[in-house]
Write a structure and sequence with these properties.
heterodimer, A: about 375 residues, alpha/beta, abc type-2 transporter like fold, five-stranded mixed sheet, 14 helices, elongated, B: about 250 residues, Rossmann fold, 2 domains, six-stranded mixed sheet, four-stranded antiparallel sheet, 10 helices, 10 strands, about 40% helix, about 25% strand
């Protein structure tokens, strides 16, 4: 026990004496949260819409005006030709073309079904469906103002009225912030642990440790505990920043969140330790860690919902620690889930923790 | 002389037919020697002769392929943790923490060897005073001259008063005066009863040893006192002895 205390004392002195460490601990979360939460948003802010108005009537003008007044749209000057408007999409000047056919007003007044055509650049599928959705809802709501029946838009005749639970305004920042916190805590945990041990290998100091009677578990605890504590602190710090900047409130229990994070970190740290035992220098371990991080992050459901991933991806995610933490973090923070709701994830995470720790202890060898 | 020390039962290190293979490569081939208490034992050889491999096996850093090792009364195959409690080690790859101060290094290594509280404080004071580094206790290792670092590393490796201390090319890269200072420390340690095993390729240092083993291509080609070796090969210095023996080497880096 005393040996572990001496190890911890040494690690903490070294971590905080390292001048690049404090900025990493304090600046990294602020920068990541501010930049990523704002950049990784899935809202469409600026849709360039080309409008071809063959009707040229009061009603068609009113519809166009509705787009004018929306902060999401910029109406770009468009020639009176469908083909030329499509050229604008080809050139990248327009994201979508709205074609209002001749007779739009007349049919509306008569109370007949009218249709407008919407052509969307679908290179980016997510953006395309968002544009489609936004545009349709504007047209629908205006059609009702005209007192007419439904306006049929291209192929979208269905009238939907959606309400978003847990995140009523569909604020993507609220959705992203818990996810980014997961990444942040992982970087601190996995990268720093792996780098720290490989650094001792490079310097040769690990050899000096290996000739001492120090026990394997003592060394591992001495190496993992400091980063475990720092990463948990980092999570708290990140949550405070998220609260102050994005007004993110944690609906669920904070102790539960930290308990889950603590188990998650055991996995992340042990994984870092395993990677460090397979590398002999810092470049190697950086690339190795980076590789796994990217795979874990991309599959975790940070950007794309895991439900829409192929089956094999979902199988993979049963061993992806980030998947569980990403899910649970959002569940607890946004949904206010309790222990019973996250129980399956908690069990899976605990199993992962036991397995990775077992490997970590076994991989680290005092004798070569 | 070898026979005499075996009989005396005063051996701190006993090695018999020790072999280390890396695949097809035999790094150490059937090494056999003994080292008595308080001796300075020199392991000489060209680069690649197998010295470092031998010393790493004796310290428990490397698992031997076959043979017999006993260090400080413990078996090298089954009791390597016991051995580690009773040895000190200092390698050519410098092993104090550069970002920690002199005192923090002493405290850390003392701590993991089981010293603490009053005992740790007394031992470190003694150590600092012996080295004359009292006023440098709060200097980071990175700011010390190399010669000082080496002497400090040597003292730290002895903080738990081990039976044997292993030095793997301890004086690389420093000037002759710093080397002389270092060897004064070694003699002092041996005088107080600590056995010293040292590898070197400075032949003037070999003269300070009580017993010399010369290795060529993983095999021991000579094992005697420097005086006897010089007599046997009719050489004036250890350098001449070494050159004569080592010229046959086929493995060089």
């Amino acid at each position: 026990m005393r040996t572990i205390l001496f190890l911890l004392q040494k690690e903490f002195i070294q971590i905080f004496r390292n001048k690049s460490m404090l900025p990493i601990i304090f600046l990294l979360p602020i920068i990541q949260l501010l930049i990523l939460a704002n950049a990784a948003t899935q809202e469409m802010k600026n849709i360039n819409l080309a409008v071809v108005d063959f009707d040229n009537s009061t009603y068609s003008q009113r519809l166009i005006n509705a787009f004018y007044h929306s902060s999401f749209y910029t109406i770009i000057p468009t020639p009176q030709s469908e083909n030329k408007a499509i050229d604008l999409v080809h050139n990248g000047d327009a994201d979508a073309v709205l074609v209002i056919n001749h007779g739009f007003e007349k049919n509306l007044v008569k109370g007949e079904k009218v249709s407008v055509q919407l052509l969307v650049n679908s290179i980016n599928g997510t953006a395309a469906s968002l544009i489609n959705g936004y545009t349709s809802s504007i047209i629908q709501s205006n059609a009702q103002l005209f007192g007419a029946g439904n306006v049929e838009i291209g192929m979208l005749p269905v009238h939907t009225d959606s309400r978003f639970w847990y995140n009523p305004d569909l604020n993507y920042k609220l959705y992203m912030v818990p996810g980014i916190l997961v990444i942040l805590v992982t970087i601190i945990g996995m990268f720093l642990t792996a780098l720290n041990i490989v650094r001792e290998k490079e310097l040769g100091t690990i050899e000096q440790i290996n000739v001492t009677p120090i026990k394997k578990y003592q060394f591992i605890v001495g190496k993992l505990l400091p980063f475990w504590i720092i990463a948990l602190f980092e999570l708290a710090f990140g949550l405070i920043i998220a609260r102050l900047v994005f007004n993110l409130t944690i609906l669920g229990s904070i102790p539960l969140l930290f308990t889950f994070a603590a188990v998650y970190l055991l996995v992340a740290l042990s994984f870092g330790l395993i990677l460090s035992t397979s590398s002999s220098n810092q470049q190697q371990v950086m690339f190795l860690t980076f590789f796994f991080m990217i795979v874990f992050i991309m599959m975790s459901g940070l950007f794309t919902p895991t439900e829409s991933m192929p089956k094999w991806a979902n199988y993979f995610n049963t061993i992806n620690p980030l998947y569980y933490f990403m899910r649970v973090n959002r569940m607890i923070i946004l949904k206010g889930s309790g222990f019973r709701d996250i129980f399956p994830e908690f069990i899976s995470m605990s199993v992962l923790a036991i397995v990775t720790m077992f490997f970590a202890v076994n991989r680290y060898k005092k004798t070569v | 002389m070898k026979v005499a020390s075996e009989v005396s039962g005063n051996n701190v290190i006993e090695v018999k037919d020790l072999v280390k293979r890396f695949g097809d490569f035999i790094a150490d081939d059937k090494l056999t020697f003994t080292v008595g208490k308080g001796q300075i034992f020199g392991l000489l050889g060209a680069n690649g002769a197998g010295k470092t491999t031998a010393i790493r096996m004796l310290c428990g850093l490397l698992k031997p392929t076959s043979g017999y090792i006993k260090v400080a009364g413990y078996d090298g195959f089954t009791q390597s943790d016991k051995i580690k409690e009773n040895i000190g080690y200092m390698s050519q790859k410098f092993s104090l923490y550069e970002d920690l101060t002199v005192w923090e290094n002493i405290r850390f290594f003392g701590g993991i060897y089981g010293l603490w509280g009053k005992q740790l404080r007394e031992r470190s004071e003694e150590l600092l005073q012996n080295l004359g580094m009292d006023q440098h206790r709060d200097t980071p290792i990175a700011d010390l001259p190399l010669g000082w670092k080496q002497r400090l590393a040597f003292s730290v490796a002895q903080i738990h008063k081990p039976a044997v201390i292993f030095l793997d090319e301890p004086t690389g890269g420093v000037d002759p005066i710093a080397r002389k200072h270092f060897w004064e420390l070694i003699s002092k340690a041996a005088y107080s009863g600590t056995t010293v095993v040292v590898t070197t390729h400075y032949m003037d240092e070999a003269e300070y040893c009580n017993q010399i083993v010369i290795m060529v291509d993983g095999k021991i080609v000579a094992n005697n006192t420097p005086l006897e070796l010089k007599k046997e090969y009719q050489a004036k210095t250890m350098n001449d002895v070494f050159l004569r023996l080592a010229q046959s080497a086929s493995r060089t880096e």
